[in-house]
Every structure is written in C-alpha cells, then in structure tokens.
C-alpha cells in the first residue's frame, strides 16, 4: 500500500509518527532539511524582517517540529537583530539528537533549549513568544488539532507576535503513506484544510495575514505558506 485517504485518524498516531521520524532521521535530513529546501530560508527571512519591525533587541521563538535544527533553527539563531532564543519542540529523539550535535554551541550559550514531545502537549504562559514557526510539522496533526494548536499559539504570542507555518494547499481529511521517502519504516500521516481553509483558520484564531503564498517543493507537494501577526493592543 502506498497511500490512502479516509475518514478515520489512525490509532496511536503520535507514537507511530515518532517511531517514523526516529527511523528516518538521517534520510529525512538528506532529502529536506539540510541545504535542499529554499522555502524555509525564504520565509524565515521574511518573518525576521517583520520581527525586526517590532524592534526588540532580543526575541523568543517557539519552533514546532524543529527536527534536526538545520537550516530553520540555525537561521533563527544566527539572527543578530534581534538576537533570538529558541525553544525547539519535536517528538523524535533521533531528530533532537542530530540537533544537539549541530547546534550544541547555542545550547551552551543559553540560547537554545529543546522540549521533546507532542506539540499538542505543550504549555506556556500567555504572551511568552515574539514568534512561533512550524515547518512541515503542523500538517502531521489531524485537522481539528491543527485548529486547536493555532488558537493556543495565538495565546502564547505577545501582541505583535508572528506565526510562520506551512499547510497543505489541498483540502483532505486524512492521508497515510506507509513507505514515505521509500523507507521501510517511513509510515506517515497528514491532513489539511486547504489553501483557503488554512487561511481562514489562522484569521479566525485572531491573526492578521501578512504573507500567503503557494509554493511547490521538489517532492511534488504543494503548500501554502502563511506569515501572520497578532494584533497590537488596541488594534481590534
């Protein structure tokens, strides 16, 4: 079986995805996460431009699904204006182990910390972050969880805070690929509200969309990339 689409969320979804990313960590990073993905860099640069307009000297960013930390987390940490502290979340020990190896100097400097686990289990005080990013990660959640997570992120953002994330351009309930990346242990799951549905989800959560663009990646997947801002106090 290559891929299926159906109405039911697979059993033990998060545990199965965790096992997949542990098994395919090296393969995944060769295909996507090293220097072969122009989109992370492009949209991270745009987000940093908007963040600079907020004029903080230092900023705190939550990365949902940080993976091995390259190039997305590294690009955030290399920012000089503002200087960024990153909390990186991922449920894969294999991915986080790679991130430790690549970005350990930032951990030692106190600018990077990791929180392992399901992003739906994260808890933070209100207005903790200047920005939150999710590269190819939120799409692994069932659609109702995507909506709930975006609403939580809005609470965690400071006024003027930014969300950068990509969502599937197509609308579908559940999709499974049992051998993703041609890996024997590459079981994967995705869902999507589609281009307009994802934009509506972000806006209904209380964010103002600054960028909405559709980009097709080398694996033939097409995503809508969104950068959105939480209103400043008094804007609404």
From TrEMBL:
Residues 61-161 form the Methyltransferase domain. Pathway: Phospholipid metabolism; phosphatidylcholine biosynthesis; Lipid metabolism. InterPro entries: Methyltransf_25, SAM-dependent_MTases_sf. It comes from Periconia macrospinosa. CDD domains: AdoMet_MTases. This is phosphoethanolamine N-methyltransferase. GO terms for biological process: methylation. Pfam families: Methyltransf_25. It comes from the Eukaryota.
